[in-house]
Write a structure and sequence with these properties.
α3 crosses α16 (319-333), α4 crosses α7 (126-136) and α8 runs antiparallel to α22 (412-427). It contains 24 helices and four strands. The strands form two sheets. A two-stranded antiparallel ribbon has the order 1-2. A two-stranded antiparallel sheet has the order 3-4. By secondary structure, it is mostly helical. It has helices at residues 6-22, 48-59, 61-80, 83-93, 98-115, 119-123, 126-136, 140-156, 164-172, 180-199, 236-253, 256-260, 264-274, 282-287, 298-315, 319-333, 335-343, 346-353, 359-368, 376-389, 393-400, 412-427, 434-442, 447-475; strands spanning 29-31, 34-36, 276-277, 280-281.
Length: 476
């Protein structure tokens, strides 16, 4: 029972920490290159304890929609009766090559996260690969580390992705290809360290003795797979649809123009807009409210998953009722992660309500003012705190960008590296990290167990980031 509400309590503890701080630290805003706190404190009162959680859920309900759409899709996959076969056949195909498959998944998720930054697009396929890894005999926490953990690790070493790297470039006024070779070198270091860390874990594999899993490992169930629903239907159409879905997500959620200067999809969308009948853009009106490929958000992602759910149901002759039943069954399995991922932005909500006047700005200003000019240590602490107050790094960087103006352009790439690395290190362990929350709750891994599992890696990577920061500073 304690485990059932563990993540909810962790989120609310973070909220109460903020509430406590709001009574003692004045909210500040940036004026020029300094912090102005003339407005005094802005404490959260009694009614705020109820108002802000509700406001958070209402504001960030789109993240719950993603989780429900993922659950609905996998509910339909399970309803076809062939999804379980796909998972188990894949596991069987890599029998005695389990570690190679594990390493391959870690590399795949980490590199795609680093280069493309499509975290929620990758999240769609996490249940599939978690299921395969569990079917191979890996523990659920190892499967989580290889998928969800790899997405977060890729963000730490972000190179081009619309996540961290792009946000740093936008806010600090850098160029996309600035220091790109060192970025990829850092990615290789982080990836090798993470692979060695996971593969070296003694608890990563559950020994099999004639059965798929040991009885005592009750948590090791293949997600979204009911054995009694297994069918003799062909698996190939399902594989084709999943590959097609992956390609669509890859093309639609990667900002080709900004990252690589490719304007193909922007031009194609413009051509669609130019197809008119009686001065009406027919094609875009039929498609409705959507963006060109490269600019798809959580809204298009959710809609696409629902569409694929119906198409897969049609292909496997589930009928409308069968498809809707599968979607309902899948959605019911993810009520908890959907609720938690919406609530997880509660501290971020407080930052948005402040409209640029927040206690984080005050804290960051005080820390950076401890030394004259740039200091990697205080900047690192600010980066860590950014991860607590914001789970969207762009808003966190924007809130304090003015504080780095006087440090000189030579230090901006170093500042970007530190803030990006430190922020995403926090995302690996903080209960307000949305990707982490979705994984922990969806695959029944406790925050305490995850913290014990990943803590050593976080410390190792923290040391490496600090060492690289010192070297970069000495080279200026």
């Amino acid at each position: 029972m304690k485990k059932k509400y563990e993540l909810f309590k962790a989120i609310m503890i973070c909220f109460l920490v903020y509430v406590f701080l709001s009574w003692f630290i004045p909210a500040g805003s940036i004026s020029g290159t300094t912090v102005e706190t003339s407005g005094g404190i802005a404490p959260v009162g009694l009614f705020g304890l109820f108002y802000y959680p509700l406001l958070t859920i209402a504001t960030f309900i789109q993240y719950a929609a993603i989780i429900f759409a993922i659950g609905a899709l996998y509910g339909v996959l399970n309803k076809t009766g062939v999804y379980g076969k796909l998972v188990k056949n894949t596991a069987k195909k890599f029998e005695r090559k389990e570690k190679k498959f594990l390493i391959g998944i870690i590399v795949l998720f980490t590199v795609l996260s680093s280069v493309l930054g499509i975290s929620y697009g990758l999240l769609v396929f996490v249940p599939l690969f978690v299921g395969i890894l569990v079917a191979m005999g890996f523990t659920n926490i190892t499967a989580l580390a290889a998928t969800i953990g790899s997405i977060l690790v890729g963000s730490i070493a972000s190179t081009y992705g619309l996540g961290s790297a792009t946000q740093v470039v936008n806010v600090l006024g850098l160029k996309m290809n600035d220091n790109i070779l060192p970025k990829f070198a850092f990615l290789v270091i982080v990836l090798v360290l993470y692979v060695v860390f996971i593969v070296g874990k003694k608890s990563s594999v559950v020994e099999k003795k004639g059965k798929l899993l040991k009885k005592e490992n009750k948590n090791l169930v293949i997600p979204f797979v009911d054995d009694e629903k297994e069918s003799s239907k062909n698996v190939k159409p399902l594989v084709i649809m999943l590959v097609f879905l992956a390609i669509l997500l890859f093309l639609s959620m990667t900002n080709w123009k900004f990252m690589f200067g490719v304007e193909l999809f922007d031009n194609f969308y413009k051509q669609l807009e130019d197809i008119k009948v009686n001065n009406l853009s027919v094609v875009t009106k039929i498609l409705g409210t959507t963006n060109a490929f490269g600019y798809w958000t959580s809204y298009e992602l959710s809609a696409l998953l629902v569409i694929f759910s119906f198409v897969i149901g049609w292909i496997y002759n589930l009928g409308l009722n069968g498809t809707l039943e599968g979607m309902k069954d899948g959605a019911l399995k993810v009520i908890k992660p959907a609720f938690l991922i919406s609530l997880g932005s509660i501290i971020f909500t407080m930052m948005l309500v402040g409209s640029g006047t927040t206690i984080f700005t005050t804290i960051a200003g005080k820390l950076l003012a401890l030394t004259k000019g740039f200091n990697f240590a205080t900047t690192s602490v600010v980066g860590l705190l950014t991860g607590f107050f914001y789970n969207d790094m762009y808003y966190g960087l924007s809130a304090i960008n003015g504080l780095f103006t006087d440090f000189g352009s030579d230090y901006l790439p170093i500042i970007g590296f530190i803030l990006q690395s430190m922020f995403n290190l926090v995302m690996l362990i903080c209960p307000t990290s949305l990707i982490l929350l979705s994984g922990l709750s969806m695959f029944d891994v406790s925050l305490k167990d995850w913290f014990k599992y990943i803590f050593k890696f976080v410390v190792e990577l923290l040391v490496i980031v600090l060492a690289i920061s010192i070297i970069l500073v000495l080279m200026v």
